[in-house]
Design goal:
It is found in: Cell membrane. With 829 residues, the protein is an alpha/beta fold. It has four domains: 117 residues, Calcium-transporting ATPase, cytoplasmic transduction domain A (Distorted Sandwich), CATH 2.70.150; 282 residues, Calcium-transporting ATPase, transmembrane domain, CATH 1.20.1110.10; 166 residues, HAD superfamily/HAD-like (Rossmann fold, 3-Layer(aba) Sandwich), CATH 3.40.50.1000; 132 residues, Calcium-transporting ATPase, cytoplasmic domain N. 52% of the residues lie in helices and 16% in strands. It contains 29 helices and 21 strands. The chain has an eight-stranded mixed beta sheet, sandwiched between helices. Strands 1, 2, 3, 4, 5, 6 and 7 form a seven-stranded antiparallel beta sheet that branches. Strand 20, helix 22 and strand 21 form a beta-alpha-beta unit. It starts with 10 loop residues before the first helix and ends with a helix.
Length: 829
């Protein structure tokens, strides 16, 4: 750490500022608050409708028909408890990835949390840090900031003493010490910080489809409820007769039966519940889902852009050797080269290559020398430099450069194709190669003990190549197996890196990125301009590996893939990945990533294990595929309830079943099976079109069920000679209709649960048997008004069941064909 004389704030100063509210406190949660979770689960439109319906039934005194309301209360309670448990899990996990900052207080450097920073603190900013509060620089050691989050300009900005560094910008090179001038909501980038908070509501294909269903139901339920009440009052002799005889109670109960059936009450609950359970399951595998709705995005991913370092490799780099190039292989020349190399790598926060060089040369006894000035390494420049002088009389200072061979060699006056060929040959073996060069003159822009003062420093053209430095990377042992899983699942993986494309391609070959085929690689400097996304997208279709990629190119690559209709996931751990992580549909950061990368990512692999990604994607696919099944199940009930209610209104007949009947049938054929099916394994990749497929599936079953119940209610009473004005005959008709409803519910469940040659078949059989057995249990039968048919009623019921089964088969075959014909004619027009 550079020596500074400033002591910073005292403990008493900090306490006073805390008391005045001058701390850097911002709202930064990893999940919804407790109040948000309760509001989201309780105060919904359909819960309000159910509550009103429940109160109406309770006013009639027939409390057994209000059981549906208690089921909603129980389900809502389950949803709240599950989300609260998920919140505790996610909050606990998010602490592991929370950024810490270094401040100078009472003359010592102490590490504190983001919220503990106060105004006037002396704050250290190091490479990779995202600046947490506005500050004025009091000392700088080559600090360069990426202010793209504030200005949209991707070019790094060099900062000097006296300059202002705004919160939200990211240090990409060097370091600095500054005085905090604005904190919390008063900082320049407070709104950007709010946008980057770890929890936010994401509009998705699933949510959009469910919202459309709910909006439609809102317009349908209210008028139908009014019509049903009016119709049911007419069936008992009109309003006056209903009030005088008390028959209004039965009319209200009948109307409520129609309304309750139309509401897919468990669908919204089950969606949020499924997201929360998926997040908890992933958390157990050290995977932090920072946006619950991003679980859906996992299911749709078909293009995965992988950052090499930290993803395919474990981030560990070992120093291998130094190959001298100038013909002078003497011990003295090698000693000077190794000393310069050590000093170049000896930055405040060296990258992986720098750390490997320091460790390797440190084992050989090399120690830090005297550095007069420095240009820190920048991922945008891809080189660093130092000025070194021996201090002896007559000795002259020397400028040493270390960086990408092709970049440094392109800046030199003389051509060195042979050196570049040698570097490429080494890189092709999968090693990392950097070039060490020396200039015996020093740039005019060097001013004393500071750094290069030029805002855009360049290597001197008369510099001479001295040595090639070779390092090797460690490949993660699980990388090949993980990539093979993605290939099997139809996800196109691309390796994108700032390193030499040959090096990256060699590593891609070792992990079999493209299977048995050799990976196709390209230097990103040869890509079409980022202002031409169509040309870029066309090129990307033919490329598996990209090297020498700049941060703004990573972002443009994601945008180009979007233009081709791909759902893109991006992994990264460095500050140069933040733009692409934010642009991607799903940003995945490693646990050891820079704070800026973790701030914009939707998913953080806390233990930085690439092998968690298949589980992440599989969990997302499970949620979406199962929610499609479950939504279909709920929507069938909505369709047949609407058809039955419409038929009742048009024919002015008594409603064919009671609310308690729909509670019984719905619990056994929809509610409980839906919870089980929603959590079942499923790895089918999600394809957009959720609402269209759900509606197409629900219509045949819903139409068949509605027609079957209406026909039963119309024909069976006439065949049996029942008088529906008599309570016993009305109860018999409703019990028969409930049996038809249950049978059709089992048929629909069997269709949703396919394939049945597994535990799914057992699931259907279990709930079918439970429904039948319940009819023979006196308490259950009395509570839910279930009647076992006998004699002529049994015969009529059996015939009605056979007719219902035939109607179901016909609708399953005919309705989809009609839909396809209509769709074809619409497209033709």
């Amino acid at each position: 750490m550079p020596a500074v004389t400033m002591t910073g704030l005292t403990g008493q100063d900090v306490r006073r500022r805390m008391e005045r509210g001058e701390a850097n406190t911002v709202r930064d949660e990893s999940s919804r608050s407790v109040s948000q979770i309760i509001r989201a689960n309780v105060f919904t439109l359909f819960n309000a409708i159910i509550a009103v319906a429940m109160v109406m039934v309770l006013l009639t005194g027939q409390w057994r028909d209000s059981v549906f309301g208690f089921v909603i209360i129980i389900n809502t309670g389950i949803g709240i408890v599950t989300e609260l448990k998920a919140k505790r899990t996610l909050d606990r996990l998010s602490i592991l990835v929370a950024a810490k900052y270094l401040v100078r207080r009472d003359g010592d450097d102490v590490e504190i949390a983001h919220d503990e920073i106060v105004r006037d603190d002396l704050l250290w900013i190091r490479s990779g840090d995202q600046i947490p509060a506005d500050m004025e620089l009091t000392a700088s050691w080559g600090l360069e900031l990426d202010e793209s989050m504030l200005t949209g300009e991707s070019r790094t900005v060099r900062k000097s003493v006296g300059d202002t560094a705004y919160s939200g910008s990211t240090a990409v090179a060097g370091m600095a010490l500054g005085r905090v001038t604005a904190v919390g909501e008063h900082s320049y980038a407070a709104r950007l910080a709010a946008e980057a908070k770890v929890y936010k509501k994401t509009r998705s294909d699933l949510n959009a489809g469910i919202d459309t269903i709910l909006r439609f139901m809102t317009f349908l339920v209210v008028p139908l409820c009014a019509l049903l009440i009016w119709t049911q009052l007419n069936t008992v002799g009109g309003w006056d007769a209903a009030v005088s005889t008390g028959a209004w109670r039965q009319a209200v109960v009948s109307a409520v039966a129609g309304v309750v059936g139309m509401i897919p009450e468990g669908l919204v609950l089950l969606t949020s519940l499924n997201f929360a359970v998926a997040a908890m399951r992933l958390a157990r595998h050290n995977t932090l889902v920072q946006e619950l709705e991003s679980v859906e995005t996992l299911a749709r991913v078909d293009a995965l852009n992988l950052d090499k370092t930290g993803t395919i490799t474990d981030g560990g780099i070992a120093f291998d050797r130094v190959e001298m190039l100038d013909g002078d292989a003497s011990d003295e020349a090698r000693r000077l080269a190794e000393q310069a190399l050590f000093d170049l790598a000896n930055e405040e926060r060296p990258n992986g290559t720098g750390r490997a060089i320091l460790d390797g040369l440190g084992e050989r006894g090399v120690t830090a020398g005297k550095v007069a000035a420095r240009v820190p390494f920048s991922s945008a420049r891809k080189w660093s430099a130092v000025e070194i002088g021996s201090g002896g009389r007559g000795d002259r200072a020397t400028a040493w450069y270390m960086g990408a061979p092709e970049v440094l060699l392109s800046c030199l006056r003389e051509s060195h194709d042979d050196i570049l060929d040698r570097a490429n040959a080494i890189a092709a073996e999968g090693s990392r190669v950097v070039l060490l060069a020396r200039a015996h003159t020093v740039p005019d822009s060097i001013q004393g003990p500071g750094a290069w003062s030029d805002s855009d420093p360049r290597p001197l053209p008369d510099a001479e190549p001295v040595a090639l430095v070779v390092c090797s990377e460690r490949i993660r042992p699980d990388a090949e197996r993980t990539l093979a899983w993605f290939r099997e699942q139809g996800v196109r993986c691309r390796l994108i890196s700032g390193d030499n494309p040959r090096t990256v391609a060699a590593i891609a070959g070792k992990v079999r990125l493209t299977g048995d085929e050799p990976p196709r690689y390209m230097d990103a400097r040869e890509l079409p301009d980022i202002t031409d996304p169509d040309a870029l997208a066309e090129t990307l279709e033919r490329v598996d590996v990209l090297g020498r990629v700049l941060p703004e190119q990573k972002k443009a690559i994601v945008q180009a893939l979007h233009r081709r209709g791909h759902t893109v996931a991006m992994t990264g751990d460095g500050v140069n990945d933040t733009l692409a992580l934010k642009e991607a549909d799903l940003g995945i950061a490693m646990g050891n990533a820079a704070p800026a990368a973790k701030a914009v990512a939707q998913v953080v692999l806390v233990d930085s294990k690439f092998s968690h990604l298949p589980d992440v994607v599989a969990r997302g696919r499970q949620v979406m595929a199962n929610m499609e099944r479950v939504a279909s199940l709920f929507l069938v009930k909505t369709v047949y309830s609407a058809i039955i209610s419409l038929g009742v209104v048009l024919t002015a007949m008594p409603y064919p079943y009671l609310p308690r009947h729909i509670t019984y049938v719905g619990a056994l054929t929809i509610g409980m099976p839906a919870f089980i099916l929603a959590l079942a394994p499923n790895t089918r990749r999600y394809i957009p079109g959720f609402l269209r497929r759900v509606v197409a599936f629900a219509l045949p079953g819903g139409i068949a069920t509605g027609l079957s119940v209406l026909l039963c209610a119309w024909i069976v009473p006439h065949a049996m000679g029942w008088d529906l004005s008599r309570p016993d005959d009305l109860d018999a008709m409703r019990a028969t209709s409930a049996i038809i409803l249950f049978l059709m519910g089992v048929f629909v469940l069997a269709r949703v649960a396919r394939p049945l040659r597994s535990w799914r078949g057992g699931l259907v059989a279990f709930f079918a048997a439970a429904g039948v057995i319940g009819m023979f249990i006196p308490f259950v039968a009395n509570f839910f008004a279930l009647i076992i048919p006998a004699g002529r009623t049994l015969t009529a019921t059996a015939v009605a069941l056979a007719v219902a089964a035939a109607i179901f088969v016909v609708c399953i075959i005919v309705v989809p064909k009609i839909g396809r014909i209509i769709t074809h004619e619409t497209k033709t027009r």
